[in-house]
Amino acid sequence: MESQTPAPAIPSVRASQFVILGLRVLTSIFLVVSLAILLSNVLSGDQDHKIHFYDYVPYRYMAAAIVIGIAYSVFQTVVAVIRIRRENHRSMLLDFYGDKVISNVVATGAVAGFVMTAQLQKQWGDIVKIDIVHKYIKRSHAADGLVFLAFICTFILSVLSSYALPKKVY
């Protein structure tokens, strides 16, 4: 007599909805905190000269990507809560295409931030060792890293929406 191994448990639709909701909330948190760091990160040498994120195009792009990501993530979080409450699973195409686009937008925003921070470190050279400049660079890296973590969440959401799509289309 052969022993049968039980089939692996497939997560229920409800459980996957809570995972998706959690990832959307996590994405929103990462992006909001990153935006707060980016907006508050100011390097002031003297009273006349201050360096803000908007002085550099890549940081402005990253800020725009963050704002777009926050808007989409908050919208999709609300939609996910409504779906859980109503047990409604419609508009999977919006999830599928929206998650793909936002994942790419957030990824390019993170890359722009990392590249700009690395360029500033290289450009400023030895003055990076000064405490106030070092703090500015560290905070920039923190903002870049949080956007990258948000990208990881959106990438996972993108994969999950890819898996959910065939179930609803066919």
Automatic annotation (TrEMBL):
UniProt KW keywords: Cell membrane, Membrane, Transmembrane, Transmembrane helix
- Name the residues that span the membrane: 21-39, 59-82, 145-165
Task: Using the UniProt record, give the first listed, main subcellular location.
Answer: membrane
Q: Would I find Cell membrane among this entry's keywords?
A: yes
Q: Where does it live in the cell?
A: Cell membrane
- Keyword Transmembrane in record: yes
User: Which GO cellular component does the record give, naming just one?
Assistant: plasma membrane
Residue stretches making up the Casparian strip membrane protein domain: 17-153
Topological relation to the membrane, as annotated: Multi-pass membrane protein
The entry assigns this protein to a family as follows: Belongs to the Casparian strip membrane proteins (CASP) family.
Complexes and interactors: Homodimer and heterodimers.
Q: What is this protein called?
A: CASP-like protein
